[in-house]
Amino acid sequence: MSNQRSDAAIYDRRGIPILPGDTVKIFHFVAALRRERRFMYKFAVETFKRGDGLTLLRMSHLNVRQETYWLVMDGSVLADHEIVQGYAGVEIGGSYRDRKRKSR
Q1: Which residues form the domain of 35?
Q2: What is the count of structural domains for the chain?
Q3: What's the distance, CA 21 to chain centroid?
Q4: How far, CA to CA in Å, does 9 sit from each of 33, 35, 51, 90, 92?
Q5: What's the CATH code of the domain at 38?
Q6: Closest CA to 84 of 47, 56, 43, 46
Q7: Which of 16, 61, 86, 104 has the fewest Cβ atoms within 10 angstroms?
Q8: Contact 56, 73 (CB under 8 A)
Q9: pLDDT (tens digit, 9 = 90+) per residue, 29-55?
């Protein structure tokens, strides 16, 4: 028996669910010179449901070798992630900003 909800999701810092097709800005570090904040950009590729019911989100590093990593869709809010572009999960002509947010 899995303790995961069937409507599993993972949320950016504003409570917007991250879906396949989204470009996500992730805080990386603060540069020593002028203390500028540096970010990485990742792309949400697809979701995958394992046999044990665990849902994963595959993220691309957006590099030449097309390397990826997985995030567990457990309903958590990722404080250092922010969606900057994405149109999945809304009606035609909509935006990721129109998605239902996670209640706080």
Answers
A1: 1-87
A2: 1
A3: 10
A4: 37, 33, 17, 15, 21
A5: 2.30.30
A6: 43
A7: 104
A8: yes
A9: 999 988 999 999 999 999 999 999 899
